[in-house]
Design the sequence.
């Protein structure tokens, strides 16, 4: 007996191909069987059944008995899943070790040298492009933050402050520990107060909002951008409410755009922003509200 299609589809999620799924589920119904018997039950070619059972044994789902003819014993599903988990963990640890060893090798120094030579031949303004999807954007921002030497300036949204804390707090903490100036400009509200309380330990955070009078009636801008050392930047091109897979951002290593366009804008907004500790009127707050007794 072979499992239902729904169950076979679930087995695919843990890495079993079609032949492996059929033979493993059939073997579970018999506990012990030969390759020939399983081949007849599942319509898996007999010549393939042996290879499939060997593969299942390597994955920890089957035990091979020393008998003639050779027999195979099924591992209970919960234990089989645990075996696969442990195998994946070991494979991941081995791969991470390989990456760390490669990172410290002379080969990386050579590749870095080739990269530096290539960059010297390119106008910094040409080092730009688009990023699609939340994961890619966060990954690129993380790379930029790791390269920071002097300053990191972030203007973000109410939701963006929570995202910044969730995805980049460790990198911002490391930057502060290295003496890098970290400034974050965002609406600080009840919805991100917790993130603000944590972030102020490693960044200077200012509240973006309530500045209409200072800016002669102009509303505070809505948007997100990050400036690194005044020579690299990312800028969000989509609203917070789009699906994470549709997030789009622009990145550039143009020092002109970073230093002459975005940095002055950031500094003006920073100058007209307020200290969240002073309790200005913020989104989500009603002017005149007083703290609870």
Sequence:
């Amino acid at each position: 007996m072979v499992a239902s299609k729904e169950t076979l589809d679930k087995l695919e999620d843990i890495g079993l191909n079609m032949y492996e799924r059929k033979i493993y589920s059939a073997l579970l119904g018999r506990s012990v069987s030969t390759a020939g018997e399983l081949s007849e039950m599942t319509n898996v070619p007999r010549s393939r059944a042996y290879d499939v059972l060997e593969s299942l044994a390597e994955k920890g789902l089957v035990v091979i008995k020393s008998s003639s003819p050779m027999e195979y014993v099924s591992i209970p599903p919960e234990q089989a899943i645990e075996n696969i988990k442990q195998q994946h963990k070991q494979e991941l640890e081995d791969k991470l070790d390989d990456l760390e060893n490669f990172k410290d090798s002379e080969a990386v120094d050579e590749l870095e040298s080739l990269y530096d030579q290539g960059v010297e031949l390119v106008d910094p303004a040409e080092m730009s492009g688009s990023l699609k999807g939340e994961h890619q954007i966060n990954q690129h921002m993380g790379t930029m933050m790791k390269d920071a030497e002097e300053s990191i300036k972030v203007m973000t949204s109410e939701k963006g402050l929570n995202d910044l804390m969730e995805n980049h707090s460790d990198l911002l903490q490391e930057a502060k520990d290295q003496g890098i100036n970290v400034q974050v400009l965002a609406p600080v509200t009840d919805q991100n107060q917790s993130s603000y309380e944590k972030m102020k330990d490693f960044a200077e955070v200012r509240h973006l909002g309530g500045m209409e009078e200072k800016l002669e009636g102009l509303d505070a801008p809505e948007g997100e951008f990050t400036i690194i050392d005044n020579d690299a930047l990312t800028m969000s091109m989509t609203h917070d409410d789009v699906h994470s897979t549709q997030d789009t951002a622009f990145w550039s290593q143009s020092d002109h755009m970073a230093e002459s366009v975005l940095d002055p804008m950031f500094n003006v907004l920073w100058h007209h922003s307020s200290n969240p500790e002073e309790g200005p009127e913020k989104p989500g707050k009603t002017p005149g509200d007083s703290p609870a007794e």
User: Anything to note?
Assistant: The mean pLDDT is 85.
